[in-house]
Amino acid sequence: MDLSAISPTLLVASLMVAATPILLAAIGELVVEKSGVLNLGVEGMMIMGAISGFAAAVLTGSPMVGFLCAALGGAALSIIFAILTQYFLSNQVATGLALTLFGLGLSAMLGQSYVGIKPPVSAKLELPLISDIPVMGPILFSHDFTVYAALTLVAGVWWFLKYTRGGLILRAVGESHDAAHALGYKVVRVRILAIMFGGACAGLGGAALSLVRVPQWTEGMTAGSGWIALAIVVFASWKPARVLLGAYLFGGVAVLQLNLQAAGVSIPVEYLSMSPYLITIIVLVVMSANRSKLVLNAPAALGRVFHASR
Amino acid sequence: MLRLEKRPNPSKMWGYLAPVLAVIATMIGGGVMFALLGKDPFEAIRTIFYDPLFSEFAWYYRPQLLIKGAPLILIAIGLSMGFRAGIWNIGAEGQYIIGAICGAGAALAVYPFDSALIFPVMILCGAIGGFAWAMIPAILKTKFGTNEILVSLMLVYVAEQLLASMSLGLMKNPEGFGFPGSRNLQQYASAHNAELWAGSGIHLGVVFALIAVIFSYIMLARHQMGFHIRLTGESPKAAKFAGVNPNKLVIYCLGFSGALAGLAGMFEVAGPSGQISIDFNVGYGFTAIIVAFLGRLNPFGIMLAGLLMALTYIGGEIAQSSLGLPSAAIQAFQGMLLFFILALDMLTNFKIKLVNAEVRT
Amino acid sequence: MTKTLLHLNGLTKTYPGVIANDDVSFNIEAGEIHALLGENGAGKSTLVKMIYGLVRPDHGTMQMEGASFVPAEPRAARAAGVAMVFQHFSLFEALSVAENIALGMENPPKASALSARITEVSQSYGLPLDPERLVGDLSAGERQRVEIIRCLLQEPKLLIMDEPTSVLTPQEVATLFTTLKKLKDEGTSILYISHKLEEIRALCETATILRGGKKVATCDPREKSARDLAEMMVGGKLNLADSKETTLGELVLEISDLSLPPQSAFGTSLKNISLRLHQGEILGIGGVAGNGQDELLACMSGEVSTTAEAIHLDGLSLGHMSPNERRALGVLAAPEERLGHAAAPDMSLTENAMLTAMTRKSLSKSGFLDWPRAKDFAEQVIKKFDVRTPGSQSAARSLSGGNLQKFVIGREVLQDPKVLIVNQPTWGVDAAAAADIRQALLDLAAKGASVIVISQDLDELMEISTSFAALNAGRLSAARPMVELSLDEIGLLLGGADAAA
After folding, report:
1. Residues C161 and C280 in one domain
2. Fold for domain A3-121+136-297?
């Protein structure tokens, strides 16, 4: 075992890459939950994004087209959820589960002929000169563009929720759909848009996994990332900046355990592979124990069915 | 313009009709999907739904129906209790794995000792294993208010790693020439969950599934606990007013479903599967969620739904070999079924009405 | 002759099984306070929802200042100068006052400018308000100010107020009336919805009375007696509950120094509550909603357990007991929220009878439930309390508010309680059912049981209670015999005077 082979600089740089898929999915889900909808289908939308992005990138040779199609794929799947929960008033927990089961099956079916193929390499944003700065260069300035896109998205969502009227309406709908409806806001429309945004983000997250992080296609490759993204939203108590923190924390754990595996630490591989999931549970417990704070930030209408009766 | 209008009373008729329509709609939707894959949709649907029951090889497939249906029904019955009360155990797959590991572990620990006591002890260990694994989310929820959905699901991944570790390490067959996986319990008479009548497909797990169906029916219809479960699902505040202790209910529902999932895993590992191996679990714990909803959380409905879902598994396998239908297509097909049942379920509580949207001036 | 602001002509709106509004026509003049009077279910809410664009009429037209007025949505109504203060507040608890107000405006100014405007307007109308506070932390009266200021910032031509005083103390009502009269003097028309007659006679110069969806009359309420108005509203003679002379018996229930921390993010805490309840007594607990009523009921019903010593029944301490243990001793309760707390909406009346009567009516034997007996009991309640429903198999949600409330109260009364605690027993219930419910409570006390009635409706408490205490910010005043109290004194108690006693 050789722990000195683990370079802290590379560790930080690679945790940013490792965290990006989860970060994208989590920031999308945050918007969805802020509108009062609990979509447990993140895992399904993510893997749909992973395969649609991968397939499109392979077919066109352009990673950009791949990312675009990933967002569309995730959003397309989320529309099923939106229609079922918003028009058919189905139970959100059950429908989200259905979305995950369906997405896993559909993606495996679509992806059959893509197993074992290498995708086109997406461009790294190597900024000349500054990416050569020691330590800071590799950490901050020599990543794939998805890393920066995710960071921009987090900042954008934060700004949108805090400073725009659209963000205020979204939060209002998530707080009390009845009151929002009484004021004349289109609750269903707002929620459908939020769900689609969440789907697109999850799709992008999936593509970040299949085109950048791994990069290849295997069945069920998300391996719980979507669920971890859901946990991060709780961890972050519905605050964008803390989603960033949470995602990087989990990225760190994931990268560290991989590094430890590579370094041949005497802990069996299986137990190291468990660690991200166990840490998710521990973090959830710590966050939930502080319940009063969590309740204050949670959207009050989260998961409740809205039906304008009269 | 179409509008939904809440029915004053839930419709009994739609309660029965919705699952039937959902199956039909899924056949149509699935047919379209198969056609897009370049398969003959009619042949595919026939292969999945008809052949396992009535083709010339049906004598082989019919017992399979019980073998595949039993774990689904056993798990789904457990899940349905919690789902009714709004307690979402979606980690049955993990509880199933742990039940299998504990059940098999009990047998492997005393191998090759023969005793009539071994099998009952395995059953007990399987149930306790699943129960204990489900107690993790249950206790975390009651003590800290942690979301049971996420915790139970995370524990599936943990259980899968544990399964891998067991089949590569502790439980690896010492006489297995280095191949991963435990000894085959089918060759260990005291631990073998054999068919009660050869060729019938009926092993002890099938009997337990039937008992679980009857037990949960009586529970829900006649017993205070079942009433409190239904009440909590309908209206948690009213349940609290009626004197229900929500924490006890969480422990009960998660524990019950965990124990049943553990039993299912134990019967599987000691019977049809035979050994602990990396790919022991095939997703019964997740498919059972579909079964529970397709059966509208009603015990007898779940029994029928479990058999139907077993049919799609078997039919899917036939279609895979005879038509080259990808195995994932069946998974997508099952997911589609859940969508339709969730969408049509609305009709029990709502009417669709055509309304005139125009304002007369 | 004043100018007509809004002309309503033949408005009709039908829902399945009900005609909510049937050919309603009247005018609202510029700068008048126009009362819309009617019982619950008379069609007042539907009518204003049509004016506010939330509901479209099936027939009929509206004209605003002579021009056709067809609001497709609230936004259009607001743009035309209509603003509305809702009966159940349309506020967002986790958002600040300023954010709440911005949500109700079409083109809100920038955050800082808006805060300044809120402060300015709130001061000029005598309704002080801090724009940065979270609405969840405000009292009911303050929340109403948020709604009113939200409307005023849009400088409306017509302000609709739906039952605005139901959550206010008498003193707060006086402040509100001053504000409304000031608005009227500035030329704003106000459509004032209420079923409180004295209030309308004090405030309004025109009143339109609705009954069963139809307009009965438009008149000057100052020229009519309250009795005339009431009879127009109800369409017949009113059946007032006849209170019997009761002499107080022995001490039955005693609460001593009961305190409770807040149960949710915006919940109220209870502070050192003490009360003594005697046999045959009806203790009325008045107070504006949100001052700890739900919490107090939960402590007594056993949904929230306290220290054992906080509550005594006949000398036996029961503060730690579960709801069913208390039921066994004869302490029963009926919470405010009918659907979803006192009854499960989708369950049948039989199942809802089982909900609380399992213990006292022995509907369960070693855990197994006796459904036929539960059905008998449900049918007994339906019969004795004249609950209008096809039968005991009907879902609770299919009943009208009044009928369900009769069922809920009847379910407890027929279990022969020693102590019955009810919260808002007649809230949102039609007058006939309300009278029946009050009579049932009086009869129960006459038979020797003790009753606590928690209510916002002072008229109700004055009608049936033998003693009165006020709940304010989680503190309960000392109980005093009802006959000794004047309306002013009650108002002061509700406002929190004497809280220390």
Report:
1. no
2. ABC transporter involved in vitamin B12 uptake, BtuC (1.10.3470)
Q: Which class is B63-322 in CATH?
A: mainly alpha
Antiparallel, parallel or unpaired: β C450-455 and C67-68? unpaired
Is residue C199 within a helix (H) or strand (E), and if so which, with residue range? helix C197-203
SS3 for C161? strand
CATH number assigned to the domain comprising residue C149 = 3.40.50.300
Measured in whole angstroms, how far is the alpha carbon of residue B21 from the centre of its chain?
A: 21
Inter-chain residue contact A172 with C89, CB threshold 8 Å: no
Q: Does residue C365 sit within a domain?
A: no
Residue C290 lies in a domain: yes
Q: A28-68, pLDDT tens digit by residue?
A: 999 999 999 999 999 999 999 999 999 999 898 888 899 99
Number of domains observed in the structure of chain C: 2
| Same-domain status, C323 and C444 | yes
Percent of chain C with pLDDT over 70: 94
- For chain B, helix, strand, coil in percent to 5 are 70, 5, 25
The last residue of a domain, from among C201, C234, C267: C234
- DSSP H/E element including A158: helix A145-163
How far is Cα C298 from Cα C308, in angstroms, rounded to an integer?
A: 15
Is residue C28 domain-resident?
yes
Reduced to 3 states (helix: H, G, I; strand: E, B; else coil), residue A305 is coil
Report field, pTM of the whole predicted structure over 0.80: yes
Distances (CA, A) of B106 to A244, B111, B119, B165, B181: 45, 9, 9, 17, 16
Helix, coil or strand: residue C96: strand
Q: What pLDDT is stored for residue A34 in this prediction?
A: 93
pLDDT digits (tens, 9 = 90+) for C262-271: 887 777 889 9
Q: Which residue of B has its CA nearest to A113?
A: B326
Residue among C337, C351, C395 minimizing CB distance to B9: C395
Contact A183 C103 (CB under 8 A): yes
Residues of C in contact with A185 (CB under 8 A): 103
Query: 3-class DSSP state for residue C103?
Result: helix
Q: In this complex, do C92 and A184 lie within 8 Å of one another by their Cβ atoms?
A: no
Residues paired with residue C440 on neighbouring β-strands, in sequence order: none
Nearest-angstrom CA–CA distance, C390 and C403: 12
- Compute the average pLDDT of residues C444-471: 89
- pLDDT, averaged across chain B: 88
Contact B206/A at CB under 8 A: no
What residues make up the domain containing C138?
Answer: 4-234
